[in-house]
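Supplementary Methods, section 5.1.

A reviewer requested that the exact input to the structure prediction be made available. We therefore reproduce it here, unchanged from the version used in the analyses.
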Amino acid sequence: MAMREIRVIPDPVLRTVCDEITTIDDGVRNLVADLVETVDAEGRAGLAANQIGVNLRAFSWNIDDEIGYVLNPRIVELSEEVQDGDEGCLSVPGLWYPTTRAWYARVEGVDLEGEKVVVEGTGLMARCLQHECDHLDGKLYLDRLERSVRKKAMRELRERL
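The structure derived from this sequence is encoded token-by-token as follows.
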């Protein structure tokens, strides 16, 4: 296990659609251990594999003192009810912008034994599930901002780089 360095924008790995995990081997086990250890730090809610430079569909979470992971996650249900609130990202440090997400989200994937896993939640957990699945599809929360807010965010981002 190792605390891994977080990749930040404009690293191209963050814009890459991650590959499905087809074989659960020692490399995948080590990836999960690193994801879990790296997400277990103050202020971290979730971490996708590409945020540590690995182009595989896996993420970990750290919500309400619960740490977990899922391999090959896919969103299978979102509520019509939405939540608004500021969202940030470890790969876009220091920027927080209002982002609309579904209030409830349900994700299905597998664990290290290849067994089906269902992860679901409301509020912050739902936001995390959606945010991390976006990462695995090569998207950042900035892509979901309303046009005028996104313009402001991108300007601020350029000033910081």
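Residues 12-160 form a domain with the Peptide Deformylase fold (CATH 3.90.45.10). These observations are discussed further in the main text.
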